Amino acid sequence: MNKPRLSERFRYWFDGYMSRGTIALVGLLAAATFLFVLVIGTVVSLVDPLKPEGDKNYSFGESLWASLLRTLDPGTMGGDQGPGYRGAMLIVTIGGLIIVASLIGIISGAFDAKVEELRKGRSRVLETGHTVILGWSQKVFPIISELVIANESSGKSAIVVLAERDKVEMEDEIRARIPNAGKTKIIVRSGDPMDLTDLELANPHTARSIIIVAPEDSTDPDSVVVKTALALTNNPNRGEGKFHIVGEIQQPGYMEAARLVGRDEAHWVLASDLISRITVQSCRQSGLSVVYQELLDFDGDEIYFSVQPDLVGKSYLEAQYSFSDSTVIGLVTAAGVVMNPATDTTIAPGDQLILIASDDSAIRLSARGTADESLIATGTAPAAKPERTLVLGYNSGLHAMLQELSEYVPAKSSVTVVADVDVPAVAKFSTMSVSVQHSDSTSRAVLEKLSVKDYDHIIVLAYREHLEVQQADAKTLFTLLHLRDIEEQQGVDLNIVSEMLDDRNRELAEVTKADDFIVSDKLISLMLSQVSENKQLTEVFDTLFSSVGSEVYLRPAELYVTTGAALDFYTVLESAARKGETAIGYRVSSLARSADAAYGVHINPSKSESVTFAPGDKVIVLAED
Question: Which uninterrupted H or E stretch holds 36?
Answer without folding.
Answer: helix 22-46
